[in-house]
Amino acid sequence: MQFEPIDQFAQRRKNLQAIQALGYAAYPHKFDATSSIPQVIGKFQGRDAAELEAQPVSLRVAGRIVALRPHGKAAFLHLAGEGGRLQVYVKLDVVGTSAYEMFRLLDLGDFIGVEGSLFRTKTGELTIRAEKLAFLSKALLPLPEKWHGLADVEIRYRQRYLDLIANEKARDNFRKRALLIAELRRFFDGRRYIEVETPMMHSIAGGATARPFITHHNTYDVPLFLRVAPELFLKRLIVGGMDRVYEINRNFRNEGVGAKYNPEFTMLEFYQAYSDYRDLMDLTDELLASVALLLCGNTTVPFGEHMLDFGRIERLTMHEAIVRHWPPGPAPALTVDALQIAGAPLDIAKEFNDWAVVNGQPRIEVGPQSPDGEIIGQLFEAVAEPNLIQPTTIVDFPRELSPLSKCRADNPALAERFEIFAGGFEIANGYSELNDPEEQERRFQEQVAAGGDEAPKSVDEDYIRALAHGMPPTAGEGIGVDRLTMLLTDSRSIREVILFPLLRPLGSREEAGGPF
RNA sequence: GGGCCGCUAGCUCAAUGGUAGAGCAGUUGACUCUUAAUCAACGGGUUCCAGGUUCGAGUCCUGGGCGGCUCACCA
C-alpha cells in the first residue's frame, strides 16, 4: 500500500511506528467519551471563565485533529467531530513526559481522545485542558489544504469523505437532506399513510417513459429492468385496499447526466384513494411550506440570486404560463384564447421558431402531424419552464402528454394533472389516476406499438388485471427528493445533494468501444 | 455528441517566447495562552501526453487525454 504524497505517507507511517514503540496500540478498539463535541459546546458555551473555575467540568471527548499549533512544551489543537470543533490545550507538565512524547508524533488528521476539564483561554475560547491523551487512529494521508479548503469539484465528488471533512456546506447539505426525508415521513405518517417498499427490479419497465438499465437474474434466467418508477406497483396496493401509501426510494433511468440529472435519483411517490389532483395540490402546498420552514427557518428560502417563496405557490394553467412568458419578439401578442383554437398551436410554434432563429434560441421540433397538445407542451418547455423561478403549480396538461391520467370531465383535451416548478425546473408531478382498465390497456398498447427505447416492450397485463379488480378514484404524485433538496440547500447541482453521484469511472474511456 | 473554458510542486495559484516561483502542507531546529500561531533553515517539478515552429516553448501551432460549464434526450 502506498499513496501520494509518498514522502508524507512514509513520514506518517514512521510516526505511527514510533507511537507503537512507546507502548500505544496502533489501532485501539474504543474510547468512552462522556459527550460529543457539539454536546460540549451546546452545554457549556454559556459558562464564563470564573464559572468554569468555580465549578470544574471534567469530561472525555474524541475527534479528529484538524488544526495543530505547537509551542514547544505546550500546544493548541482543534478536534472535529459530529460537525463541531473544540479547542484542546496540551501542556507538558499537565499530561506528563510520556504522553507528551506521543503527542509530538501526532499529525493533522489523526484521531485522539482527551480527558480533562474545561476553561477559557485569554481570548475567551472554550477549551479543554488535556490531563490524559489517548491515541485512537492514524491518518496516513494529509488533510486537504487548510486555507482554500477542498475546491476541486471532481475530488469533492469522487472522494466525498474529504469534502465532508473540509467543507461545512457539504456536511450541512446532507444533514438537511436527512432532515427533509425524516420530515416527509413524519408528514405522511401523520396523515394515515403507510410507507411501503416495492420492487426495484421489474420484468417490465413501466410507470414512466424512460430508458431502463437492464440486468439479468441467473436462477430464473430472465432479463430484469431496474425500475424507472414505482407507480404501477403502488397503484396495485391501492387496489389491495391500502388506501394511502407512500414510498421514498431510488429510480434508475439510463439517460443523461447533468446539473439536474443523476441516473439514480430518489423519488417520493404517494397515492391517496378517494381523492383527485386538486386535493394533492393543496396537500403539496402544505408539505412544501412545512419542509421549507423546518430546513430554512422560513417559508422563503434563498436560491442563487432569488428568494423562493414556498408559502405562496401560484397556480397557472399551462396556457397562462406560455402567455405570461411569451417573448416580446414574435408578434402579435399571444392570448390564452388564441392558444386554444384547434390547429392554432402549429402556427404559433412557427412564429416562435422564427423568433428563436433570430435570437439564437433553440427551436421547437414540430411537424404538421404533431397534435396540438404536444406542441403546447413543447411551447411550455421552451417559453415558460426556465422562467418558473418562484414555486408555481402548472395545471391543465394536454392529455397527449399524460398517458396515466384521467381527463377532465368538462374538457377531454386536458388531463387532470399538475406539475410544480421552482428554480426553473420540475420538482413534482401529480394527477388523478386513470382507473378504467379498458382505457388503460388501450393506452399501453399505443405506447408499445409506438416503440422506441423509452417505451415499455410489452403491456403490463397484471396491472390491467389489477385495475379490472377495481381501483377507487385515486390521486397520485411524485416529488423529486434530490431536486427539492437542491432548492432547500441553495445548490446549483444535483451532485451537491447526492453523496456519491455517478461519475465516469477513471480510465473508462480507454476500454470504450470494445465489443460494439 | 456540439460549443466554451481549464490542466504548472501534495494543495491553492504566479511566471512578455529567454535560469520554473510564492503561500500552505512536509522535514529539521527554537518557542508553556495559540487560533491562517510565529521565527530560522531545508527538501520537493516528465509545466497532462505526443508531435511541430523556433537559437530557445510552461507560453505559439496541430493532434490526443482528462475535467468543468453549457446545449440537445431525460425528472
Describe how the helices and strands are arranged.
Elements: H1 6-21, H2 37-44, H3 49-54, E1 58-70, E2 74-81, E3 84-91, H4 92-95, H5 97-103, E4 111-120, E5 126-137, H6 153-158, H7 160-166, H8 168-189, E6 194-195, E7 201-202, E8 214-217, E9 222-226, H9 231-239, E10 244-252, E11 264-273, H10 277-296, E12 300-303, E13 306-309, E14 314-317, H11 318-324, H12 336-340, H13 344-359, H14 372-384, E15 392-398, E16 407-408, E17 411-422, E18 425-432, H15 437-450, H16 461-468, E19 474-480, H17 481-488, H18 508-511
Parallel strand pairs: 3-5, 6-10, 14-15
Antiparallel strand pairs: 1-2, 1-4, 2-3, 4-5, 7-9, 8-9, 10-11, 11-19, 12-13, 15-17, 16-17, 17-18, 18-19
Helix pairs in contact: 7-8, 8-10, 8-17, 11-14, 13-14, 15-16
The protein binds one RNA strand of 75 nucleotides through helix 1, strand 1, strand 2, strand 3 and strand 18.
